[in-house]
Amino acid sequence: MDIPKPQAGKLAQIPADRFTELLLNSTPLIDVRAECEYHDGHIPHSVNLPLLNDAERAEVGTCYKRKGQEAAITLGTELVSGDTKKERMTAWVRFIADNPTAVILCFRGGLRSQTVQKWLAESGLQRPLISGGYKALRRHLLRTTIRVASEKKIIIVAGKTGTGKTHLINNLTRSVDLEGLANHRGSAFGRRVSAQPAQSVFENLLALDLLRQEREGGATLFLEDESRAIGSISLPLELHRAMSVAPIVRVEESLDFRVETILNDYI
C-alpha cells in the first residue's frame, strides 16, 4: 500500500479509512507491544518485535504508578539503551529489509510505536505507524463481523459427524471454516494437539476472513452448524444470533462413508 505523506514535522500514520486496504493486502505489521500483550491478542500477518519485553514493561508500569509518566519514560529509555537498543534496532531493520512495506503498531499508537518510528527514521528508515494502534485495528475488525453478520444471507451446513461438512465448507467459495479458525475438531473429537488461539486472536482471524468474503461480493455465506462455544472459543454474539435464525442445509451420508471420513480426518 502507498505510504501517506506526513505533515510537516510529523511522521506518517495510517488512518482508520485505510485499515481495510491494509488488512486485505496482508501488510506486514511490526507489533512492538510486549510478548504477553501479543499473546493475548494480535493481528494476522503481524510479528512481535517488542520495544519493551514483559519484565521491562512491568517495571516501567510500576514506576508509572509510583512516580508518574515522566519518571516512567526516563526508566524506559534507560532500559532500552546501549546493546539492548542495538539488538532491537537490528531486529526491526532486518524485518523491514525483508518486508519493505511494514507498518508499526503498539496498543494505542502512542509512545512505543512513536519511539520505534523515530529511531528508525533517525537511521534512515521511514515507516508509518497505525493511528490508534492495535486497539483501533481490532475495533475495525469487530465492526466488520457485526456488519457482515447483518448483511450476508447465512446458510448453515449441518449433519452428523463424518458426513464431510468441513470438506464441503472448504470447497465452497463463499464460506468460513469456523472450526479451522478455532483450531478445533468439533464436539465429537474436541481440540487438536496444538492449542486453540486466544479468544481475541480468533475474533481477529474471523473478522479478516469475513472482510475477504465482503470483498469477493455475493450475498450468501456458508457456515458449519456450531454451538456458540467451539472448545474454549466463543463465537461473537452477533454472528451466533444470525446463525441461529439462518436456513439449514443438512448433509446426509451412509454409515460406511462416515466411518471412512472419521478414520481419515480424526484418527
From TrEMBL:
One of its GO terms (biological process) is tRNA wobble uridine modification. It comes from OM182 bacterium BACL3 MAG-120531-bin86. PANTHER family: TRNA 2-SELENOURIDINE SYNTHASE. It comes from the Bacteria. This is tRNA 2-selenouridine synthase. Keywords: Selenium. InterPro entries: AAA_SelU (IPR058840), P-loop_NTPase (IPR027417), Rhodanese-like_dom (IPR001763), Rhodanese-like_dom_sf (IPR036873), SelU (IPR017582). The keyword tRNA-binding does not apply. The keyword tRNA processing does not apply. Residues 23-146 form the Rhodanese domain. One of its GO terms (molecular function) is tRNA 2-selenouridine synthase activity.
